[in-house]
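Two records follow; treat each independently.
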Amino acid sequence: MKMKQKLILVLMVVALAQAACGTFEVAVQESVPTQVATLEGACPIPTAETKLLTNAEDGYCLLYPAEYSTTIPKYIVINPISSPGDIPGDAWLYIATAAASGRTAAQIADENIAALGEGFNITRFEVEVDGEQAVVVDGLPSLDSARNVFIVHNDRLYNLIFMPWFPNAAELTSLENLYTMAMDTLHFLPQE
């Protein structure tokens, strides 16, 4: 009987130590076969062709193609360039976060568009990402042509910026694939 109590005590200490050290993952079997359950929520499961990017501090996770780089914080880079310069690679996704201050994604997108005034060729449409309204805006001026996706979750703004975004360009295929994968797999986590 004492041996059983000691074993239970040791197992409880190990479980508490794992919880204190951070996230532990448990594959969810039947209810959600394409996600991993964590202490923070459910993230998509990576495959041989994809990797999982998790940012617990900013409260999100998503899949991206395995051959891309995430060595620069908050960036997913296609064909990274190792030499110093102004661009991290051929194309990239940058994920910026900030307080939404009670505004919706539509309000934030409209504010960005209105601040420019007239004369810009801007397109705007709405989609849903992980159950939240998202506003996709093409044509906002920046260092390069960009597609901005504005999403608000728990009063936090997530701005996904895909660059360089040249609509209808043949070389855009890799960035379009990254866009589709990020939008389909983005999942919000409780923020740390």
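The next record belongs to a different protein.
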Amino acid sequence: MATKRKGWLLVALLLLAMPACSGGPHEAQAPVKAPPGGVLLRGAGATFPAPLYQQWFAAYAGAHPKIAISYEAVGSGEGIRRIIGTNVPPEERVDFGASDAAMRDEEMAAVPGGILLLPVTAGSVVLAYNLPDVPELRLTRRAYAGIFLGEIREWNHPLIAESNPGVRLPKLTITTVVRQDGSGTTFAMTKHLDAVSERWRARYGAAMLVDWPGAAMRASGNDGVAGRIKQAIGSIGYVNYGAARKAGLTMALLQNRDGGWVQPGDASGLAALAAAELPENLRLFIPDPAGPGAYPILTLTWILLYRSYPDPAKAEAIRDLFRWCLTEGQGRSGELGYVPLSSSVARKALTALQGVGS
């Protein structure tokens, strides 16, 4: 990127990698300003796709010196709150939000003119664990549902041992690492548990924020969860594939809907998304994908756009930025551990994007 262009981009990834109990503040970020004669686009929301957004926005801004982009990775729930805008202070107002949990109809109706849910990428939610002497771990659906229900409390529990013959599982307390903030990653995880476990469905259902049972440590953001897992022997937590890979965490093989053992990765993520067909409202959940090679926990993630922007230049910049993300940007997804959209999903999203105006 040319030196003169570097000043026009700050992607503010405010991910807490410190222990959740510390309560430390985010580091102060330099304010981002619009370039002379240009446009500033401010966004905030999901931590799940934040590393990909950082790369996308840097590449786009590098080629478009009249556009400045800021993005705060503050969680899906906060992204939804800021795009709705009710009682949001001016310094937190955004031009676009981001969430791994699609907004509900009543949330979108709270915004005059409405909101467009724009799917831009997808990713796997993995179960990463810290057992130094167990380099490979298989977890059935009953086993991992029982762990997060707080019913399976030790690593040598029979339900874990039966799918790991020959593995010396320690008599060690299981500690789950979970999100303390309103999270689309939590929504994807609990949406899956809701699909595969009657006991989970009866007690919790799918939610962005859960009062987790059992011995649970809480952290903010995907990087925060990954950091806690890395620190705590005996822990297991749900986190996006890219964050787990970046942190060097060991990830469990999960039993999918077809009964196969599946590792998270590019191939299993693409297999999970292969049959996805977007409805007209672009709100699609894939809580338990079918297919022998499909990874069982996968989510689309959405950019949240106003359907109308008062400033025509901002509306044009929004359309062009996310048109680029849905086309050229898709080729950058795999290298960071995300799943590029299928051509049919990308086509529908591009068509919907044309409806954003001023």
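Discussion point: The two ends are 31 Å apart (CA to CA). How would you locate this feature using only the token line?
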